Fold:
Amino acid sequence: KEIFSRLMASHRWFMESRDPVNDGVIATIHPWETGRDNCPDWDLGLSNVEVPEELETYIRRDTTHVETEQRPTQQEYDKYMAIVHFGKKVGWDNDTIYREGPFLMADPGIQFILLRATKDLLQLAKHLKLEAAFDEIQQWIDKLTQGSQWLWNDIVGGFCARDIRTGKFSDGITNASMLCFFANVGNAEQQEKMRAHCERILDKCNYGFPSWDPEHKSFDIIRYWRGPVWLVMNYMIGKGLLECGFDKLAYRIMNDTKMLVDNAGMAEYFDPMEGRPLGGQNFSWTAAIYLEMCSADVSEDTINRV
Structure:
């Protein structure tokens, strides 16, 4: 109860600052805040970002301990910093950044995680018997559910990132697309199409779930969010699949996840084809997810029973 008002304020900030037009579509103003920095989803939005001549010199620390082939390119980083430069120039004013900023896209990851978190917030409010908050939270849930449909790409047959200003879609299925199950978004037909994508993509990899569709031309097995497997995403995908009744796929992902760590250690991310450890080593969030998954039964017997 002591922190509930702060949780409400956090959700209210997202709804007001990142959806000022009130259509239920949450905007992201920088690839960094999605957590999926160099995913091909952002190629669309970054194509319009111009690097100013007055961009200050900076030093990349990520490539001092990880091979450059496993990280975002220098061109991408210059554009990341150009977005930061714009934000600093306008004093990080939310309205100005939304309406004039160089990058504005809708991310299935942010959209679906926020929707799931808002549903959890309502359950917390009910548990604490804070009835005054019920209506506002439910309105957020309804609005985010409605806005999620704007991310449905009929051509791909799945939920995809989308440029908010132009309306153009990214054309790839990602691990963030699969978070539709975590948020329990989509009608029966849409969820079935996403289930089919999930099965198709898993069949193309030795270890799931890759961060980008392995059948897409932009797929890269070692470069950060353009292909590698991330445990924190697998956890949410697996949990969502279980809750939506797709048990076999959920256990398959959980089992793959556990095998990756058992074979390659607590790496930051992993090669979906060979299971090689990539990025930084001894990562704490990898360890945290591994411990959580080990508490569940993800044995082959369980998968076969399902």
